[in-house]
Design brief:
5 strands; homodimer; DNA-binding
Chain lengths: 139, 139
DNA sequence: ATCCTAGCTTAGACTTCGTCTAATGAAAGA
DNA sequence: TCTTTCATTAGACGAAGTCTAAGCTAGGAT
C-alpha cells in the first residue's frame, strides 16, 4: 500500500481505482516523471485510463500539497511525491532526468538583506545542472 | 547602441535589422520578458517582424551564451540578457515579478559528492521565493 | 559598385503539452 | 439499494514553440 494513498485518505478524497493507480505509480517513482510518463506506466495496470484523468489527478494532488510540481526545462512538468523533506534538484541537461538531492545547509541564509528588495523571502531552492552517467557517455 | 549588439559582433553574427531590434529590445529590459512580449515591443519599431524570427533569434542568443533562458512557472520562457555576472532569482509568489539577486558564495560547493549520483555537475542556481512589497500589503 | 551565395526571414502548418466540455459512470452516504 | 454528487472519458480546443519551403539579403568576392 502506497504511503501517498494513506495520506490522501486523510483529505477525504474520493478514492477511485484510477486515482489509486496514479498515486501508486507516482509514489513508487525514484525519478520525477512527466504526466505522460505517469500515464504510460499507469496504463500498464489500467489500459483504459485516460489522459484527462491523469492531468486532473495530478493537479489535485498538487493543490492538496501532497505532490510538488516541478518545471525546469520550460517543456513538460514533472511531479515529485517527496514533499516531506526539504530537498533540491539535480537535472540532466541531456535527457531532462530529475533527481532529489540534499545540501549541507539552507540557502535562504545566503541572500543578504540588501539583496532582498523589500521582499518577505520564504523559500529557497537550488537547481543543480549537469549530465547524468548515460548522457555523459552518449556525447 | 546596445551593449548586447556589440558583443554579438564578436560572434561573427550576421547583423540584420530584425536581429538588431530584437537584441536592443532585450538589452533595454529591466524585467525579463517572454518571447511574445519581446515580439510585441520589437514590433513597435518594426511592424513586419515575424514571430518565427523572434524565436529563432532568442534561441541563437541562448546558444551563443549571450542570454539566459528562464522558466519558473512552466508556462512561457523568459529571457535574461544579464549574463555577465553570476546571479540568482527572486520571484514574487503573488505577482510573478522576477528580480536578479546576488549571493555570497557559489552553491555548487554545497552539493556533497555522494549526492551527485554520477552526474557531471556544472551549474547551480538558486530560486528565492517570497512576496514583494506590493503583494505583502495587498494580502 | 555589382554579383553571388550562404544563411536569414517569412507565413502558416505543425507539434507538444495541457485544459475544457459534455456525456456517461461510479463512490459512498442515506 | 437508491440517490446524489463527484469522477472519468474521448476528443475538441488552446497556448507556446518549432518546422518548412519559398523568397530575400548581408557581406565577402570580384
Amino acid at each position: 500500500m502506497s504511503d501517498l494513498v494513506t495520506r490522501l485518505r486523510r483529505h477525504q478524497w474520493r478514492m477511485t481505482p484510477q486515482r489509486r493507480v496514479i498515486a501508486e505509480t507516482l509514489d513508487g517513482a525514484h525519478v520525477h516523471y512527466t504526466a505522460d510518463e505517469i500515464l504510460e506506466r499507469a496504463c500498464e495496470r489500467m489500459p483504459e485510463l485516460s489522459r484527462a484523468t491523469v492531468y486532473n489527478t495530478l493537479n489535485e494532488l498538487v493543490a492538496l500539497g501532497e505532490v510538488l510540481e516541478l518545471n525546469f526545462d520550460g517543456r513538460s512538468k514533472r511531479y515529485d511525491p517527496n514533499v516531506d523533506h526539504e530537498h533540491h534538484h539535480l537535472i540532466c541537461d541531456g535527457c531532462g532526468a530529475t533527481k532529489d538531492v540534499h545540501t549541507v545547509a539552507d540557502p535562504l541564509d545566503w541572500l543578504p538583506g540588501d539583496e532582498r528588495h523589500g521582499f518577505a523571502v520564504a523559500k529557497a531552492s537550488i537547481t543543480f545542472r549537469g549530465r547524468c552517467p548515460e548522457c555523459r557517455e552518449a556525447r
